[in-house]
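Supplementary Note 3. Input sequence used for the single-chain structure prediction.
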Amino acid sequence: MLALVTGASSGIGLQYATQLARDYQCDLLLVSNQQKELDEVAKDLAAQYGVKTVPHFADLSLNDAAENLYDWCKQEGYEVDVLINNAGVFFFNKYCETDIKRIELMLQLHVMTVAKMTRLFAADMCARRRGYILNMSSMSAWMAMPGIQTYNASKAFIYNFSKSLWYELKPYNVHITVMAPGAVDTGLFGLAPNLRKLAVALTVSIPPEKLVKRALKKLFKGKREDTPGVINWLSTPLLKHTPDWMLFLAQKKLAPFMK
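The predicted structure, written as discrete structure tokens, is reproduced below.
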């Protein structure tokens, strides 16, 4: 199988690439906007696991990024069996103090690029009557949290979009899974190191390798969605009904620890 992983040069994307090569013997199309790191990852994974790795530099926040990537795959003769839409960004900031370019970047990357990548590659998968797509959402999709208003709105789109497509694609033997984890132990959220360790110890945060292992198992079993962690799973209904005063208190407490 050939797997295309976005945001593959570091963090969760690197884990997806590593585990797909190591545990599933997938050849890899690795996409990132970090050229040096991407080339190193491709070289290392090929040497370690004996799979074919192709690094492809691309800025997926550009308006035509999905179309360009899809056309490039067609031109090169790459038939994608597994699509991992992982690339993402995060910032914690008051909306009216956030540069419009940053807002545009996040919405383009999380909404338009994910939607177009899924549309383009899923159509080919449906024609072949086989394929797998994994989209990364977040527990924040159910939260009206000040400071991450653009992030959680974009993740809500990914969550509902993916769940709806699960029904549409199933008759074609194309499986789409959406992961909605809580905190993941990477530098993306800008938490201080001591808080990161505490969150992992309390199982509120999950290490990237554990998240990816679980996500790939769910994907290849054809599961529609998953939220890792018992605490996170149990707290999901509560998040939907959290009173406003608690949200503002949480924002106040978290703000000093965010970059």
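The two ends are 39 Å apart (CA to CA). The CA atoms of residues 143 and 242 lie 8 Å apart.
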